[in-house]
Amino acid sequence: MCLPAARPRLADLMGLALSLSCLLHCLALPLLLLLAPALSRWIALPEGVHAAILMLALPAAAIAMRDGWRRHRRIVPAMLAAAGLGLLALGLLAHEGWMAAADPEAADRMLTSMGALVLAAAHLLNWRWRHRGGAHRLAA
Questions:
Q1: pTM confidence score
Q2: Of 14, 42, 70, 86, which is most buried, counting CB atoms within 10 Å of its CB?
Q3: pLDDT tens-digit profile of 73-109?
Q4: Where are the domains of the chain?
Q5: Which helix (H) or strand (E) covers residue 8, if one does?
């Protein structure tokens, strides 16, 4: 049982531990996603992974961007999300060989990586503007 004086210290330690674990999660997951195209040379993934990821990203982006629009009334995150999803779709086309490219694997990696970065930026911007509170109409 914690003594009353030890509770704030314990709360601070727990908060610090949770914050650090959140930071690790927030940094590691995007890094892993960014590295996924490069790692695909050494890690064999099922053929449908690109399409499955795109099919999961589409509704997730639509829901997030719609909610963001309702709160902050800014179109930029949705436009970035559309561009990111478009790049992911082009990466899928290159991966499947449906797009003329000198090096389809390189085109797939480049387009997928760029799409993931643009989509992540859209989600971060949307999250930032959505959680700004009363200052959401100020300059970006």
A1: 0.66
A2: 86
A3: 999 999 999 999 999 999 999 888 887 777 888 888 8
A4: 1-44, 46-140
A5: helix 6-39
Question: One-letter amino acid identity for 105?
Answer: E
CA 37/CA 94 separation, integer angstroms:
13
Q: What's the token pair of residue 83?
A: 């561009």
> How many Å apart are CA 47 and CA 95, to the nearest integer?
9
Give me 35's structure tokens: 């590295």
Cα separation of 73 and 140, whole Å?
Answer: 12
Q: Is the pLDDT of residue 48 over 90?
A: no
C-beta separation of 81 from 116 below 8 A: no
- Amino acid identity of residue 115, one-letter, is G
Q: Render pLDDT for 4-46 as a digit per residue (tens, 0 to 9).
A: 556 655 665 666 666 666 666 556 766 776 676 667 667 766 7
Two tokens, residue 5:
């004086």
